[in-house]
Design brief:
The chain has 772 residues and is an alpha+beta fold. The chain has 13 helices and 44 strands. About 1% of the residues have low confidence.
């Protein structure tokens, strides 16, 4: 067969024919495993590829209480020692929400929105803080351990678990009641030893205001915003941190959509960015001040080491030109950034609504609107700032709106950041920040801010500031959510097709629901891979394990199982000395199997015996009892046992439905061959259906299996032509076969076996007489 012709075809001259060479079959990947389940983070709409524990931490997070999948992933990396990799599908209940950081322009108006950054995917991992406040309708909404907010629209199950409740009227308003969980209907439960109702009755029972807070300790996304490295007067840089560690740098970005450095495109098209999504919301002209900053504002007062900022601005929307004024009252560190909109209901009164906390109450002009005193019949919110609006020369009318942009500093968040006191006239002069509250910044001793900053100057702060919000979407997960991962038509694992992945071993670690495990086996059957089921940790007898596999799940050539499936290991997150954690050993087993496969160049070596150690195992759920291998082994259930001081996998069988496929390693080797061959012959499709093409197919197959024979994957007790019989000849490729557009190859392999028993025959020799 020719591939290309160069030179004259019908004219005179030299013609060169480039003949098509052999088409070798590329060996498939070895040692890849696929896990589906709950993760701390990661996209839910794409397959997550992980080739190292460091990449795993960036893409899927760390250990979480809601799932054993992270344990399995990190266990598998440990025992695989670089062999293969992990494919992960994140399962949620669909209620996850991304954390967010709003971006504002560098101009005197404190809150001119120009865009936002969102966590790359939903979850608590991205957001430092989440708040909610309201008033109980009745004191009966409270007990010592429960609070009914009567709000069925603002919550998802357990999204505030791990947070706390504070009662404005309690005996001690600063007391924190730890939240165990909450319902979607807004009913919160605190620890059983708490006394919320008793404390409220002993305090100010008429004050029914409550505050709900959830913080993430040291976990959060942060962003630091600087001037651009190359064009500091017109561009900016973004630096992304995860839990305090710098992970992405974008030193030269532009707000101009026509620029090659357009920030939204640069960030969103960065293939190495697993952390943030950028959204540009600015529609006006692009100028130098339409760039984001961590904090950009106007100086109120300044001393040598302390800058006090104006932390609000005020906008009037009045068709008749009303000109009221507004002054903040005494603000506190507890008050948080928000927009407060006052809609006038008369010339002297209006209703105040916060974009963070909803209705705040009724505002009366020339009267201090101040938390936490009552106003308009509603208890005020300590997180909202006090203020006084006063009428001007032109009166307000019904429907006019007043907008307060309140933007305090996050207390202590600016420490170790940098302050530029006058970003207009002294652009480069800066000072290291040593402290800050909600409106003042203190810089290092020996500084003199007054040399460059003065009242009304525009300042800028550079410091990593944290995203807020975020919700996991883990609390209401049902079997149906896991079943999506194993849907043969729509599973994200389908994305491995045409990637030459060889055999992939799938599992849902810690998920023992019968429907889910059966779906995993069915998926493996449909896709010609393998699924590892788990026997529940409470199952500790041989008969019960046998019944679970053979009656509850059912036998299959496409699954593997080890008993016990769970064991005690050292808690990977530390804790008290000697603290153990009961986890499935699925990840560790699949990691060890991956290492053995790579070490042997294939799946023909039984992944069992003294080489199949499980070093993390400290104690089995079955105790020190010797398992009945006479029962379990013939049924295809491998065991974990202690041999020579190590826990090892002992058994090379599967619970097959076909006696021909009792050996686990042989079934895996055939999965591998079938998948590699299926994806290796696209080159032959639409080729000429003739002897030359059949010969090329034969040559490719022979070269591939000769290497497998040399690697001892085929039975070396026979010559190659006996261990591997390949037919792609005229006898099977008849005229009828060719007329149908088919080309047929028959391959018969003698797969290498395994030593399951070493039988030693020994006896006494007969009596003999020496003649020496």
């Amino acid at each position: 067969m020719t591939q290309r012709t160069f030179g004259p075809v019908r004219g005179a001259g030299v013609q060169v024919i480039e003949r098509e060479g052999d088409q070798p079959i590329s060996p498939g990947a070895l040692g890849w495993r696929g896990f589906a389940g709950v993760l701390e983070k990661g996209p839910t709409d794409e397959l997550i590829w992980l080739d190292s524990p460091d990449i795993a931490r960036r893409r899927i997070g760390s250990y979480i209480a809601d799932s054993f999948v992270p344990d399995a992933i990190f266990d598998s990396f440990k025992t695989a020692s670089g062999a293969g990799g992990v494919l992960a599908v994140r399962v949620t209940d669909g209620n996850e929400v991304q954390a967010q950081y709003n971006l504002y322009a560098r101009r005197g108006a404190l809150l001119t929105p120009i865009g936002n950054l969102k966590a790359h995917n939903g979850g608590r991992w991205g957001g430092k803080l989440k708040r909610y406040t309201g008033d109980m309708a009745l004191i009966t909404d409270l007990t010592n351990t429960t609070l009914d907010t009567s709000d069925a629209t603002s919550f998802e199950t357990d999204e505030y678990a791990g947070g706390y409740i504070q009662l404005s009227g309690g005996l001690n308003a600063a007391k924190q009641y730890p939240i165990i969980g909450n319902t979607a209907a807004g009913v919160f439960t605190v620890a059983t030893d708490q006394t919320m109702l008793d404390d409220l009755n002993a305090g100010t029972p008429a004050d029914l205001r409550y505050y709900i807070v959830r913080e993430n300790a040291s976990k959060a996304l942060s962003v630091e915003i600087k001037d651009g490295d190359e064009n500091p007067d017109t561009e900016f840089g973004l630096y992304i941190y995860v839990d305090g560690d710098l992970v992405s740098t974008y030193p030269n970005l532009s707000m101009d959509p026509n620029s090659t450095r357009y920030w939204e495109s640069i960030i969103n098209e960065d293939a190495a960015n697993y952390e943030v999504v950028a959204e540009d919301t600015w529609t006006g002209a692009i100028t130098a001040d339409i760039r984001p900053a961590n904090n950009f504002g106007v100086i109120d007062t300044v001393t040598t080491t302390i800058l006090t900022a104006l932390i609000h601005d005020f906008t009037i929307n009045s068709p008749t030109g009303a000109n009221p004024t507004l002054l903040l009252g005494t603000t506190t560190d507890a008050m948080v950034a928000q927009k407060i909109t006052i809609t006038m209901t008369s010339a002297t009164e209006g209703t105040a609504v916060s974009d963070k906390f909803g209705a705040l109450g009724t505002v009366t002009l020339a009267t201090l609107f101040s938390p936490p005193t009552a106003a308009g019949g509603a208890l005020m919110n300590k997180w909202a700032p006090p203020f006084t609006a006063t009428a001007g020369a032109t009166a307000l009318e019904i429907g006019d709106t007043l907008m307060i942009n309140y933007k305090p500093f996050v207390v202590d968040a600016l420490i170790n950041g940098v302050l530029y006191p006058d970003k207009v006239n002294a652009k480069r002069e800066n000072y290291r920040i040593t402290d800050n509250d909600h409106k003042t910044i203190t810089v290092v001793d020996g500084s003199d801010l007054t040399t460059s900053g003065a009242t009304t100057d525009e300042f800028m702060v550079v410091a990593p500031l944290e995203f807020e919000g975020g919700r996991d979407g883990n609390a209401d997960i049902a079997d149906a959510d896991y079943l999506q991962a194993w849907d043969t038509s729509n599973s994200l694992f389908n994305q491995i097709v045409d990637k030459n992945m060889g055999l992939v071993k799938f599992a849902s670690p810690g998920v023992n629901a019968t429907a889910v495990q059966k779906a995993g086996v069915a998926y493996a059957f449909a896709k010609n891979h393998q699924y590892r089921i788990e026997i529940p940790s409470a199952t500790t007898t041989d008969d019960a394990a046998d019944a679970y596999v053979n009656e509850t799940i059912g036998r299959s050539n496409y699954m593997a199982v080890t008993f016990p499936s769970y064991a005690y290991v050292a808690d990977p997150e530390g804790g008290a000395d000697g603290l153990l954690k009961l986890t499935p050993r699925t990840g560790e087993i699949l990691g060890r199997e991956a290492r053995i496969a790579v070490d042997n160049g294939g799946y023909h070596r039984a992944e069992a015996g003294l080489i199949a150690t499980l070093p993390s195992v400290l104690k089995l759920t079955t105790g020190k009892r010797i398992l009945n291998e006479e029962l379990l082994n013939p049924r295809g259930i491998a065991v974990i046992k202690n041999k020579q001081g190590n826990y090892v996998i002992w058994g090379d069988r599967i619970p097959s439905t076909d006696p021909e496929w009792k050996w686990k390693h042989q079934r895996e080797q055939m999965f591998y061959y079938e998948n590699v061959l299926r994806e290796s012959f696209d080159w032959i499709i639409f080729s000429l259906n003739n002897p030359q093409t059949r010969q090329r197919a034969y040559t490719s197959l022979k070269q591939f299996f000769q290497l497998e024979y040399d690697n001892q994957a085929l039975d070396n007790d026979y010559d190659f032509d006996e261990s591997c019989i390949i037919k792609v000849d005229d006898e099977i490729n008849t005229e009828a076969v060719k007329a149908a557009g088919d080309m047929i190859a028959h391959i018969a392999l003698k797969l290498v076996g395994t030593v399951e028993r070493f039988v030693i025959s020994i006896g006494k020799q007969g009596i003999f007489t020496s003649v020496s």
